């Protein structure tokens, strides 16, 4: 009787054990449908507002699936000539990554402390998400679809984005936030706390550079001819809303392009075109309002003022590094600044790759910043400005030997003052 009373009456299993694999699979399907609804709501809304005679609900559904795959970075083709379309609307990519990361965090909270069983639930969620992706690819395989899929590349793109975002959510949910790896350098060059300081400086650089790109884009909108271009394209409420939603979807792309313009390397506008502060040359362009923001084909003038954006971004990184370097030596400060410049390469390569692509065959097969040029420009600006700026800010904070000065700097200042007193 005592043994029976000591047992749980209902024998309820734990939260993880109570969830079957089918439940986790359906969780992945639900997450995919949630991201799909972000595209479906405006597309079906526009289809209802302007139902063209040759468009059916099936055509609208295939368009939704095509845009959803394009938001994952999957390459599509359009038209009878199979013209490539690979420019991903990064706003959809960001929303999808955020939703997937949140799903990964929820799975991590359920799986914490369960040993190897923690991977059963996330893998089932991942499989459910890919199941919806396979259905979307099958829907866009119709030759009559406006945007046709390419099965293997599209599934690979969805698998890569979903795996990375879910993995990030799992890693963060398990209490292991992403951090820069410790460099194999001696303490004389890499002190304690250098990694978090470099991470903060890199975040400050990226945020300030993005904000500077937004200022450049806003200036182009105010001074450009996008409004007149949109008036020629817009023929009704549905057309205006469609153009507005399309411009919003590629707004992050435009921010990356503007950042490349401010850095000086510019971006490609077709295989034989280029836009940059030192001059712009373009040929015939597709009808799209954002492409109307390009400056006229002329040499450098006030467009060089866009260079103020990376200067301000490098100053932000230098201030963050200099504040953390008050207890470091100049060599350690310089090593941290160089590490910040090198750490900017991977995100720059990724942003340059995702923000560009192709809008058609021939000369429109290249559009957007060149990844390696975009990354090299960021590293060059950081080495040219953030490195001396961090050293200068470190010296400025510790010039009086106050509590903010590092021990080495205070010792040198004390020795210098002692020598001066003895000489007097």
Describe what you observe in this structure.
The protein is flat. Strand 5 (274-276) and strand 6 (279-281) form a beta hairpin. With 424 residues, it is mainly alpha-helical. It folds into 2 domains: 14-173, no CATH class; 194-399, no CATH class. Residues 1-18 have low confidence and may be disordered. The protein has 16 helices and 7 strands. Helices cover 63% and strands 5% of the residues. Helix 6 (120-139) runs antiparallel to helix 7. The longest helix is centred in the middle third of the chain and has 30 residues, at 194-223.
Task: Let me know the average pLDDT.
Answer: 80
**Radius of gyration from CA coordinates:** 27 Å
Helix fraction, binned, reads 55-70%
Number of separate structural domains:
2
The largest sheet has its strands arranged as: 6-5-4-7
The string of secondary-structure elements, in order, is HHHHEEHHEHHHHHEEEHHHEHH
Largest sheet: 4 strands, antiparallel
Strand content: under 5%
The class by helix and strand makeup works out as: mainly alpha
Strand element count:
7
Which descriptor suits the 3D outline?
A: flat
Count, helices: 16
What distance lies between the first and last C-alpha atoms, to the nearest angstrom?
95 Å
Spans where pLDDT lies below 50 across 5 or more residues? 1-18
């Amino acid at each position: 009787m005592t043994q029976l009373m000591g047992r749980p009456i209902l024998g309820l299993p734990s939260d993880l054990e109570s969830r079957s694999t089918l439940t986790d699979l359906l969780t992945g399907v639900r997450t995919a449908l949630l991201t799909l609804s972000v595209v479906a709501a405006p597309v079906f809304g526009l289809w209802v507002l302007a139902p063209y005679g040759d468009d059916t609900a099936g055509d609208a559904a295939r368009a939704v699936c095509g845009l959803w795959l394009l938001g994952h970075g999957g390459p599509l083709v359009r038209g009878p000539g199979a013209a490539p379309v690979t420019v991903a609307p990064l706003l959809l990519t960001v929303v999808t990554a955020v939703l997937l990361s949140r799903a990964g965090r929820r799975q991590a909270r359920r799986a914490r402390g369960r040993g190897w069983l923690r991977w059963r639930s996330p893998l089932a969620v991942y499989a459910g998400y890919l199941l919806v992706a396979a259905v979307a690819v099958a829907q866009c395989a119709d030759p009559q679809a406006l945007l046709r899929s390419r099965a293997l590349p599209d599934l690979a793109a969805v698998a890569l984005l979903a795996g990375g975002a879910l993995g990030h959510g799992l890693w963060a949910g398990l209490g292991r936030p992403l951090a820069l790896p410790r460099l194999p350098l001696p303490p004389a060059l890499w002190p304690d706390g250098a990694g978090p300081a470099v991470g903060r400086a890199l975040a400050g650089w990226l945020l300030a550079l993005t904000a500077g790109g937004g200022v450049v884009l806003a200036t182009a909108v105010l001074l450009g001819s996008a409004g007149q271009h949109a008036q020629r394209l817009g023929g009704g409420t549905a057309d205006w809303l469609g153009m507005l939603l399309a411009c919003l979807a590629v707004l992050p792309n435009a921010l990356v392009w503007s950042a490349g313009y401010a850095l000086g390397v510019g971006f490609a506008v077709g295989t034989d075109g280029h836009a940059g502060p030192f001059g712009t040359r373009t040929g015939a362009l597709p009808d799209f309002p954002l492409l109307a923001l390009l400056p006229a084909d002329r040499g450098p003038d006030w467009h060089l003022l866009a260079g103020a954006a990376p200067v301000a971004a490098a100053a932000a990184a230098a201030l963050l590094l200099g504040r953390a370097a008050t207890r470091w030596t100049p060599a350690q400060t310089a090593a941290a600044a160089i590490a910040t410049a090198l750490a900017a390469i991977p995100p720059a390569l990724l942003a340059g790759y995702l923000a560009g692509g192709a809008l058609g065959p021939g000369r429109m097969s290249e559009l957007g910043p060149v990844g390696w040029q975009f990354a090299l420009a960021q590293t060059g600006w950081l080495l040219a400005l953030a490195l001396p700026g961090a050293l200068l800010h470190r010296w400025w904070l510790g010039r009086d030997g106050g509590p903010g000065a590092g021990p080495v700097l205070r010792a040198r200042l004390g020795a210098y003052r002692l020598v001066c007193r003895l000489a007097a």
